[in-house]
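USER:
Working in pairs, take the chain set out below, taking as long as you need, and write a paragraph about the fold.
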Amino acid sequence: MYTETGTIDKEQFIIEYTPLVKRIAYHMMAKLPASVQVDDLIQAGMIGLMDAIGRYEGSYGRQFESYAAQRIRGSILDELRDADWLPRSLRKKMRQIEAAVRSLEQRLDHPPSEQELADELNMSLEEYQGALQDARGGQLIYYEDFQEDEEDHFLDRLCGNRENEPLDHLLEKNLRELLIEAIEHLPPREKMVMGMHYEQEMNLREIGEVLGVSESRVCQLNAQAIARLRARLRDK
């Protein structure tokens, strides 16, 4: 992908790696609120790709793809930070569900069913599942959980320094062990959803095809699994 003069053909690089930008954007979109537009993520990712092409100094191929993916994700996170994508109403809704999960697990000594959670929240099953759908984008860990109100937004702190990657924090040994233990306590179907989505990097549509359910149902199961995990991690 070089020109006749031996310089990098940036236009050809952009064409070849645009599918990578879209793949990353759609994968990240599955974890974000419905108010976020995937086209905005793709546009931000393209800026990251062009930045990667301009900065990269190693050998091209798989090594460049890994480097580009990091820059693309970073650029998308910057866009999300600027857009303030995490509304307080979303966190409040998820915390209500988490509180119900925690309360019922202590009383029942088993993972509560959706109907039990709906009853605890004084909702119909349909209303509860709608709340899960609305909570799409709820994260496993909000760094706001560990900060005071006057501190900087967590994306400002984590994305401002490229060497300070969120993944490094999530892989901290103690948290990793707690997370593995919490996942083991998930109901089987929710455990399958988490494994396919986060380990195998399958999107919600693909998971739905495997489970024989709709994409929106997979979204609900994912949101509910995250609520269960957060409830257990809070207890720890």
